[in-house]
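Is 4'-deoxy-4'-aminopyridoxal-5'-phosphate placement plausible here? Inputs below.
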Amino acid sequence: MSNKLKWISEELNHLHAQGLYNNIRTIESPQGAWIVVDGKRVLNFCSNNYLGLANDARLRDAAKRAIDQYGAGPAAVRSIAGTLALHRELEARLAKFKGVEATIVFQSGFTSNLGAISALVGKDDVIFSDELNHASIIDGGRLSGAKIVRYAHNDAGALDDAIKKEGDREGRPYTRALIISDGVFSMDGDIAPLPALVDIAEKHDVMLMIDDAHGEGVLGRGGRGIVDHFKMHGRVDIEIGTMSKAFGVVGGYVAGKNEIVEWLNQRGRPFLFSSALTAADTAACLASVDILESSTELVDKLWENARYFKSEMKKLGFDTGKSETPITPIMLGDEMLARKFSARLFEENVFAMPITYPTVAKGKARLRVMISAAHARADLDRGIEMFAKVGKELGVVR
Ligand code: PMP
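Reply from A.M.:
I modeled the complex. Tokens:
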């Protein structure tokens, strides 16, 4: 019998033994504050549905109408026969929302990062990347072939030093350079020091790219994102966005100056070689932009909920790490403890998945609570009560 796949079962056993095996749950209901998971109705603390839009009637209606008008599938890549009037409309609306010259829509935030980074730098170039950047940034960097220099997390001084050091290096100097940072870090909920990054990028004349996946719909006026939050309009060359979180749908985009977007229309590989976002998704995204532009109510509710949850959890003695946003890690450290905590919460009808290596460093396991505008105060209170109960039971808090 062939032995060539034996290594996989060995690796999987290893994951189980180390508490690193990810038990993927199945959701059997629409997204919301309460969802049905593996047949059980549970309080949802895991989704990126910041504003509760994923199951909003206005998005559902827009998607249905778009299917009737344009059909189900895109049937082509954007650059051949897949670009619909709807895609161009969404790009224009997103540009206005973000306060940039132009945007280009991709299938996801992940492909936006892959497409943008690999089109902007290549093998003669260098990327300066925050050490905690999202996997799609890391993969985009690798795909580009550029030299990748990691700098200490959110440390502008370390970034400045790294750029100087690369510039001073003997031999072949780099042609182009790109600084990349998450805007809001997805596992800790802390915010990049954008004004300092902008200053450094301008001082060294290096391109600056910020992934605003967890900033839009959350930071800035009416959820316009990190650039708006810090009033840095026109000073960040490339912004990456996703429609899969606060916008409640799926899809991604790159925002910036006209020439960048034009270049990505020509050279963004997922745009050229992978089929377009569906009409239903695109129309639902447009409906989200309408909602965000019409009122700040959902963004305000999100923050009110996040502040309340975090302060109550801190009062109980939980460590919420460095979070400055609705992403609320409950730091536990040990992988096994995180799994056990999550499993006990699930028994109490609270769904909070453990986040362990390789998503975060070994020994930095946590439960990451994602607060949403969809949660009512009673939902948060119920969650806090159950965290307190299980936390005491497992000796995490007293
Ligand atoms: N960037 C960051 C910072 C993210 O957290 C994510 C999603 N986990 C992505 C990009 C990818 O977005 P999408 O789900 O739209 O592919």
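Short version: Residues 108-110, 113, 134, 136, 182, 186, 211, 213-214, 242, 244, 252 surround 4'-deoxy-4'-aminopyridoxal-5'-phosphate (CB under 6 Å).
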